[in-house]
Amino acid sequence: MARIVSARPRWRQTVEQSTTIVIGLSAEILGGEQRKETTLGTIGDAALGAAVEGQRVALDATERLIDTGAAIARASMRIAPIRSVVRGARRAVEPARVHGEHVRVVAVRETQSALPDYTGKTMNVALDLIQLDEVMERVDIEKLLERVDIQAIIDKVDMDAVLARVDLQALMEKIDLNEVVSRVDLDALVTQTDIGKIIAQSTGGMASEAVDLVRRQGVGIDQFVERWAVRIRRRRLRQRPAGPPLLVAVEKDGDA
Amino acid sequence: MNVKVDEQLQPSLIGHYAGAATRLAAIVIDVVLAIVAFDLVLIGLSWLVEVFTPWTLNRGSAWVAIPLVGWLFIYFWYCYTLSGKTPGMSLLGLRVVRGDGSDLHGWHAAIRVITLPLGLLAMGLGYIGIVFGKRRRAWQDMIADTAVVYDFDARAARLRFLVRKPIKGAAEAK
């Protein structure tokens, strides 16, 4: 046989949900859902169970009382003198009711308009009171990040819109391209990419290869002679200029 | 002798004073080229004289040295004035410039060519400055206020070399 359960009134749902949230938060702060079986814990759980049961009984009684009161009020309204008294009372409090309604509507509107400002101020006060360093020390950042779906966030970002707001010209002016290029491993770039092929196609064949070889060998012998010359006359040759002043920067000029 | 191109080679050697070895190689190539060209012209000329005139041209005569010296002067002077480099210098990637690095003009080129043999006549003493001088100048450079510099892009040459060098593991991959 199907059991007919009447829907719980809204006020009762609100009270029960509030109680559940308070219990949940308290339990989380005190150690979470799972905790060790201790005497104190057992006593706490027993007290909690009793309190919840007590609340249920109290709420049942209150609900029945309200239902009974409402039934009595409905029955009383069928009696003409009582009905007349109630109507008279309603008429007497009507101006106060209208005023109260007006105050309520205005209060809601003003609260909605003032809410952002109030929230901001409240947040500032809260931030002043909270020692953020201490909070951050207790927060497990890695655990927090594990729960964040970075890919989903990236998917939601409109990169075109972001890039449209970036002033590339100003950005480029701040970048030292010489510094950037100096960090590039040109040898690896040429040997591992198609840039090498482009250079090879644009700069030559067998003839340039032979000329390069001759010149590189020549420079190699020059450097060999140079090293020996510097060994023999170290003091004089250590700071000689690399080339004529108009062609290279000269550190220190000298004769011959 | 361990000849190895310095890995810390300047990005480009253009404008740097040239060393003794490349300069020596360039002058040897130029002298050989000039004399071979002179000989070829002389052979052709003597053949023409023998064919079209009753005289003969003695190519072994000491008097031949006079036009040879003139030819050498023209060969070097013209090349220096035209581009600052002779064929031998072009091969080795060298160029003659003024002492301050500006382009060489006819007068300085002529002085340099005329004084070119002085170092050789002095038992090679005139070339010691190329190795030990602060500005790597031989006597002819000091007299004519000139300098010999590299005129090729060492970095580009190195990149071309790297391009031709086989990449490790590429052969196995194929």
Average per-residue pLDDT of chain A, rounded, comes to: 81
The number of distinct β-strands of chain B equals 2
Large-scale geometry of chain A: elongated
Give the largest interface pair and sizes.
A-B, 45 and 53 residues
User: What is the oligomer described by this structure?
Assistant: heterodimer
Describe the structure in your own words.
The complex is a heterodimer of chains A (256) and B (174). With 256 residues, chain A is mainly alpha-helical. Chain A folds into two domains: 10-132, no CATH class; 150-223, no CATH class. Helix content of chain A is 76%, strand content 0%. Chain A has helices spanning 10-30, 39-76, 80-129, 132-138, 141-146, 150-156, 159-164, 168-174, 177-182, 186-192, 195-203, 206-232, 234-237. The longest helix of chain A has 50 residues, at 80-129. Chain A is elongated. In chain A, 6% of the residues are buried. Chain B is mainly α. Chain B has one domain (20-167). Chain B has a two-stranded antiparallel ribbon with strand order 1-2. The longest helix of chain B has 33 residues, at 20-52. The model of chain B is unreliable at 1-8 (pLDDT under 50). The interface between A and B is large, with 45 and 53 residues.
Concise description?
By secondary structure, chain A is mainly alpha-helical. Chain A has 13 helices and no strands.
Features:
heterodimer, A: 256 residues, 76% helix, disordered C terminus, B: 174 residues, mainly alpha, two-stranded antiparallel sheet, 2 strands, globular, disordered N terminus
How would the blueprint of this fold be written?
The complex is a heterodimer of chains A (256) and B (174).
Chain A: H1 10-30, H2 39-76, H3 80-129, H4 132-138, H5 141-146, H6 150-156, H7 159-164, H8 168-174, H9 177-182, H10 186-192, H11 195-203, H12 206-232, H13 234-237
Chain B: H1 20-52, H2 65-83, H3 87-92, E1 94-98, H4 106-115, H5 118-121, H6 128-132, H7 139-144, E2 146-150, H8 154-164, H9 170-173
Antiparallel strand pairs in B: 1-2
